[in-house]
Amino acid sequence: MLLTISTTHHPARDLGFLLHKNPERVHEMDLSFGRAVMFYPEVSDEQATFALLLDIDSVALVRGRNKDSKGLFDQYVSDRPYAASSFLSVAIAKALRNALGGSSKERQQLADTPIPLKARVLPVPVRGAEDLVARLFEPLGYDVGIEPIALDEKLSYLGEGWDQSPYIALNLTGEVRLSDLLSHLYVLIPVLDKRKHYFVDRAELEKLVAKGESWLGGHPAKELIASRYLRFKKSWAREALLRLAVEDGIEEVSEEAEASLDAASAPEEGSVVAEPPSPPKDAAEEALEEPIRLHDLRLDTVTAKLRDLGVRRVVDLGCGSGKLLKRLMAERQFSEILGVDVSSGSLEVAERRLRIETLPERQKARIKLLQGALTYRDRRIEDYEAAALVEVIEHLEPERLEALERVIFDCAKFETVIITTPNREYNDLFEGMAPGQLRHADHRFEWTRGEFNAWASSVAEKYAYQVQISGIGEEVENFGAPSQMAVFERV
């Protein structure tokens, strides 16, 4: 995907001072999902053009960029490596941070001044009403140019609509401050696309208010923008608009705005909102274990153990679709509950399962969802008493377990950690399983009782915990229980 910004302001080469990028050099920045390459195709006093080329690593989107990370998606085939989307917004925020903030050490007066600018972004996916691009950008003072990007006409044999493309080349021309142009692109590109590569939490609400404070409150399509940017979370969109209205001296959202927000919170008729895929972490395994109701038994056992230990603040690491979270929410004892998962799709499923948007405020305050990897230190989880990892560790490569151990037992130092994992010895009793087969295609290993015991004891000794190991499910002589659980308590 490509973003270019041109100016004819004299001297045009001063664009380099505004962008904090020397026109004489090629600039590169590594990002978690690829690489940003920045350069100037043309530089003179009469005209200068800056280009931001985003090279998305499509393999890393699935596999992760190294052995200590995991990908954002579970499908290789998607338009995310090529379409201008929330990836571009992240690149703008990281690679052009000072320009987005409107600061320039050498040319601050110029940074504060509207100058003639032209932006070109391609390819841009536009999903929704036909006039969406004009509705978003024309009220901001831009002349808008749209160049449709056609798909191969040979696809027409598949039926009506298959040869039509949602992608365009977007051209914006206007006299505007560079920081305003970047803020408009940062917010509105994901609004056009209506998809994000990461889970939308309250941090996104803060970003919307921060990036839109100078223009969004007076935009005629503000309800639509807020709703789509926040993935149709009406209460958050209303809060963002109210905060922007208060800054303008208005203390409540009007009835007309409320009605517009209601309409904007539903996808447009005929449009398709593609949800990010959530990893098939549980489905095959649950089907295999269904006859003994093992999945429910595991969740009930972990919930009961946390309750019996008197835990109040707990993190579900690798929370998936939120089944354990739902059980914890049903227990008044748990006053603070956090779900963490690397998959934005899983978090959105969990959010719907828990019906967070419709919960009373007191209940809503008990639960929080965050996107994060379990093999990197995350200070957001370090204030909680206990952590649960239910059928999680077997989804990691064995060489990444040491990183997981450091995050949980050394950095977070939870008082209590509960880990469950399959017992490989029991697999021989499952009907239809071949010798040596694992319960799920995504499992990297499954341990025998002896292997799990050795690992848990080693971790406990290394990080000053005591550990108790037990089985979950009916014990069978010579095979043990179908699942096994370790309860670590800090000494």
General description of the model:
The termini are far apart. With 491 residues, this protein is of the alpha/beta class. Helix 7 (178-193) crosses helix 9 (222-229), helix 9 packs across helix 10 (234-247) and helix 13 crosses helix 14. It has three domains: 2-198, c-terminal autoproteolytic domain of nucleoporin nup98, CATH 3.30.1610; 205-276, no CATH class; 283-490, Vaccinia Virus protein VP39 (Rossmann fold), CATH 3.40.50.150. Strand 2 (27-31) and strand 3 form a beta hairpin. The protein contains 18 helices and 14 strands. Residues 67-76 and 267-281 have low confidence and may be disordered. The protein has helices at 15-19, 60-63, 86-95, 97-101, 108-111, 132-137, 178-193, 202-212, 222-229, 234-247, 255-264, 283-289, 294-308, 323-329, 344-354, 361-364, 401-412, 449-463; strands spanning 2-7, 27-31, 34-43, 48-56, 115-125, 143-148, 167-176, 313-317, 336-341, 367-371, 386-390, 416-422, 465-472, 483-490. The longest helix is centred in the middle third of the chain and has 16 residues, at 178-193.
In the CATH hierarchy, what is the class of the largest domain? Alpha Beta
Shape: elongated
Strand content: 15-25%
| Arrangement of strands in the largest sheet | 2-3-4-1-5-7-6
Count of strand segments: 14
Structure in a nutshell:
This protein is α/β, with parallel strands linked by helices.
Provide tags for this entry.
491 residues; alpha/beta; c-terminal autoproteolytic domain of nucleoporin nup98; 3 domains; seven-stranded mixed sheet
